[in-house]
Amino acid sequence: MKMEMIKLDIRKAACFLAEGAVEGMEKQTKAAHKALEDGTSKGSDFLGWLHLPSSLTPEFLQDIKTTADTLRRECDTIVVAGIGGSYLGARAVIEALGNSFAWLTNKGENPNILFAGNNIGEDYLAELLAYLKGRRFGVINISKSGTTTETALAFRLLRSLCEEERGKETARRVIVAITDAKKGAARTTADKEGYKSYVIPDNVGGRFSVLTPVGLLPIACAGFDIDLLVKGAADMEKHAAEAPYAENIAEQYAAVRNLLYAGGKKIEVLANFQPKLHFMNEWWKQLYGESEGKELKGIFPAAVDFTTDLHSMGQWLQEGERTIFETVISVEQSEHELRFPHDEENLDGLNFLAGKRIDEVNRMAELGTQIAHVDGGVPNIRIVLPRLDAYYLGQLIYFFELGCGISGNVLGVNPFNQPGVEAYKKNMFALLSKPGYEAESEAIRERLKKEA
Ligand SMILES: O=P(O)(O)OC[C@H]1O[C@H](O)[C@H](O)[C@@H](O)[C@@H]1O
């Protein structure tokens, strides 16, 4: 298979900017990139993702594959417990590479991968437990901090059901922990119970952790090629380290989005034309949202699945407030071949399409949308993947991570922290009377009384 690099096309965005604006950003963008390389960026304790792909050894990847084989042998269902960065990357890759109906068509060749620990839905959890009862299931418990409420709750339930259903000894073999080296409940339990465990490096933040065991183990369990995924990322790492500004797609992306933002485009809408990329949208939203949305600044990352959402959000995108720009993930080649059917009666008048590849129709929908949105005042950036496979997804992941680090530096924020996420947690713990939160509990109750 010929391997290419994914491409970035910014022409339909640059035409909304002053002439030479992108070129004029070279110095600033290169400096923002260099700050990552030199470790002088804000948040420089969290730069472990930068050279992660090239540093993963065959031995390390083999160990992950061996653990995945054990889980695949011993389980027909694997529940991945995690939230945010401990969840979205794995789901994004598994859904992008998998059959859209995997859970219905699966004849046992791969375990079904389910996700939990990403909400506090009582019904969700009750229905999940009811489904798992009587099944040969295993659990991958993922939490960098080891203290996240949603994940800890799911793990309590899953662990006890697993021990009950499969016995303590088997449970020890089919529960794997991915967490901090020393801190947190997930680590303590794993060490005490003797679970196989992996460490999330201190210097890799959750939303940049998909190429650590956080993403790699669930992806390998689902039966996908993690060597190829990592190779794609490593090739993009190499490209980005060497390419001059005009050809450096991560730098170009960072520069263009900052220019658009400065010009009043406050919302970036990530769009795909492949339903399998839905969770890639979700992963990207966390990556860019948590990295840039702070100090009262930052592009709001929104996302849509086309053509589905053209029938719900299309009106807004075409004619709503002109504060958006669009970034489209475009896939050049589909994996299957299916043609538009002919119909004798032609009641829908669509026989002019009969015999055409469905992908060709989708492509024209994509081009038609781009022309319409650009005409409607929406700058358009295109990211082109030759096909949806592990190699190009690896490239895409690293491209987005690096683009994000550079972009956050250009914006002038610390792209690697997320202090704002604590605010809701603090209130929730105060409302639930967590020990140690006595003063906060009293204050919040007083406040609610006054506001009632
Ligand atoms: O992996 P964990 O420590 O459980 O964290 C899971 C997620 O929750 C947090 O609240 C953060 O905002 C995210 O950045 C993180 O990815």
Automatic annotation (TrEMBL):
Gene transcribed to yield this protein: pgi
Subcellular location: Cytoplasm
GO terms under biological process: gluconeogenesis; glucose 6-phosphate metabolic process; glycolytic process
Family to which this protein belongs: Belongs to the GPI family.
GO terms assigned for molecular function: carbohydrate derivative binding; glucose-6-phosphate isomerase activity; monosaccharide binding
Pathway: Carbohydrate degradation; glycolysis; D-glyceraldehyde 3-phosphate and glycerone phosphate from D-glucose: step 2/4; Carbohydrate biosynthesis; gluconeogenesis
Superkingdom as given in the UniProt entry: Bacteria
Task performed by this protein: Catalyzes the reversible isomerization of glucose-6-phosphate to fructose-6-phosphate.
Ubl conjugation as UniProt keyword: no
InterPro entries hit by this protein: G6P_Isomerase, Phosphoglucose_isomerase_CS, SIS_dom_sf, SIS_PGI_1, SIS_PGI_2
Name of the protein: Glucose-6-phosphate isomerase
